[in-house]
Design goal:
Radius of gyration of chain A: 18 Å
Number of helices of chain B: 9
Oligomer: heterodimer
Distance between the termini of chain A: 18 Å
Radius of gyration of chain B: 23 Å
CATH class of the largest domain in chain A: Mainly Alpha
CATH architecture of the largest domain in chain A: Orthogonal Bundle
CATH superfamily of the largest domain in chain B: Cytochrome c-like domain
CATH topology of the largest domain in chain A: Cytochrome Bc1 Complex, Chain D, domain 2
Helix content of chain B: 40-55%
Helix content of chain A: 40-55%
Strand order of the largest sheet of chain A: 6-5-8
Strand content of chain B: under 5%
Largest sheet of chain A: 3 strands, mixed
CATH class of the largest domain in chain B: Mainly Alpha
Order of helices and strands of chain A: HHHEEHHHHHEEHEEHEHE
Chain lengths: 269, 206
């Protein structure tokens, strides 16, 4: 592991240099290269292992594990579950993404209060997020499988259509929408390539590589975090964790990625 | 009785049909209501940022294959033009060195930003400007040699000032923020950015 981090540091420096020396060289290409150099040394594995423990341990006031949790393919089925999310769940009568579903199960099966569960949705210096670890474990169990979001239940269709509206909703002091930065082909902000999320190929590539270990932050970041931080850049107020808008938007993006081969947690800049 | 049931069934069918065909406007309203319930105000970013003016509303509606009708676009441009406020002292060009710093800085208006600090414009996020800065984006066209190519004329100074003040006045639904209109930059800052584009000594024109 230590060797891998050294390699990674070297790769990041090379990347920074390359970015300045050769502006046309796509940053994504560079990342692909050092990801290949790392082999299977993605630090996301640490989150995946911690998440697996959290999933199997008896925890909470009810001293129960999460192994009876239905995250999309029936109670306890982890493999492939992420590829069908977001999805309508009859017990809550709601469309849920992975993170809201984990919260639901930690409340109903383990007896935690919602407030306790969502206290640290994202990790940071000195605090670890159990949710991000669980997300890493569950998503990692869908590697190599094809995205297959149904979107046929009326509430799923509604979430998709509203999510699409949110994607194009311009507002705030900068008049930005998601589509400002992700609505055209081959755009770049500074040197960062921006996926055109209204197009299938780009949506597949982007969605199937989240969550991701962010080298620049030393943290594993979930999809809820990705949306939270893009809304910050969009100059919108703060997105509430697992809020209906976050799930509708995820529905729109996930369904657009259908057919893409899931390959995360990934490693990113 | 039979007739009533038939009528009821018919109503049911119509209702089901309506539920399946929600209009664009209804979906927009639902999206706004959902967003209002999904964000919390934070620092300087209040919930009213989710509300839309006419330009934002119309430009959100038309995308992809749905092209905005010409007359709608022209009306928006005229309305936005009327909102431009020119400096009382008549001077449009400030200091390009300060303009370069403003063009480089991406801070401002995020809930994580301190509103006591001056805002940046991050022109480089979307435009090539000086030759020396290689980390530029491509959302907007290259502005390298802008003044040199377009001419160092008073008309061009006025266009540059107006464009930065309110980009929508010239191309409805542009991706570029309305830096003056929306209070992202002060009048003095806009003059400095105009100098970056229009001063013959600016690196943009070297």
């Amino acid at each position: 592991m230590a060797r891998n981090f050294g390699l990674m540091a070297a790769a990041v420096c090379a990347l920074a240099f390359a970015a300045h020396a050769q502006q046309d060289k796509s940053v994504i290409d560079e990342i692909e290269k050092y990801r290949a150099a790392l082999g299977d040394g993605n630090p996301a594995e640490l989150w995946e292992a911690r998440g697996e423990d959290l999933w199997k341990q008896a925890r909470g006031p009810k001293k129960a594990s999460l192994e009876k949790c239905d995250i999309g393919l029936g109670p306890g089925v982890v493999k492939g579950a992420y590829t069908v999310l977001p999805k309508y769940f009859g017990d809550t009568d709601k469309v849920e993404d992975l993170e809201s579903r984990l919260v639901t199960c930690m409340v109903t099966l383990q007896g935690f209060t919602r407030e306790e569960v969502v206290k640290d949705p994202f990790g940071g210096p000195g605090k670890k997020s159990d949710l991000e670890a669980l997300v890493a474990y569950i998503t990692g169990s869908s590697r190599g499988m094809k995205m297959n979001v149904a979107g046929t239940h009326p509430k799923e269709r509604e979430a998709y259509e509203i999510g699409q509206k949110i994607f194009f909703h311009r507002g705030g002091p900068h008049d930005f929408a998601c589509s400002t930065c992700h609505g055209d082909d081959n755009l770049r902000i500074r040197l960062q390539d921006l996926p055109n999320l209204s197009k299938v190929a780009d949506a597949q590539r982007a969605y199937t590589t989240w969550p991701a270990y962010r080298v620049s932050q030393g943290e594993l970041r979930s999809f809820q975090w990705r949306l939270y931080d893009c809304f910050r850049q969009q100059r919108f107020p703060e997105l509430v964790y697992t809020s209906p808008a976050s799930i509708a938007l995820t529905m729109y993006l996930a369904k657009s990625a259908n057919g893409g081969t899931y390959n995360a947690p990934a490693i990113k800049r | 009785m039979k007739k009533t049931i038939g009528t009821l069934a018919l109503f049911g069918l119509i209702a089901a049909g309506c539920a399946a065909m929600v209009s664009d406007e209804e979906r927009e309203a639902q999206a706004l209501a959902m967003m209002k319930a999904s964000f919390k105000e934070s620092g300087q970013a209040k919930l009213d940022r989710l509300d839309q003016d006419d330009m934002q509303k119309m430009c959100s509606r038309y995308h992809g294959d749905k092209v905005m009708p010409r007359d709608v676009g022209e009306k928006l441009e005229k309305e936005q033009q009327a909102l431009i406020k020119f400096p009382a002292d008549g001077k449009l060009v400030g200091d390009w060195k300060s303009g370069e710093r403003i063009a480089q800085s991406g801070v401002g208006k995020q809930f994580s930003d301190n509103p006591a600090n001056p805002n940046g414009a991050n022109c480089y996020a979307c435009h090539q400007l000086s030759k020396a800065e290689l980390a530029y984006g491509t959302i907007g066209p290259s502005l390298y040699n802008f003044g040199k190519i377009r001419g160092f004329t008073p008309e061009m100074q006025k266009y540059a000032f107006s464009k930065v003040y309110n980009s929508q006045a010239f191309s409805a639904c542009s991706s570029m923020p309305r830096f003056g209109h929306s209070g992202i930059l002060t009048e003095a800052q806009i003059k400095d950015v105009v100098a970056l584009l229009m001063d013959p000594e600016s690196p943009v024109n070297k």
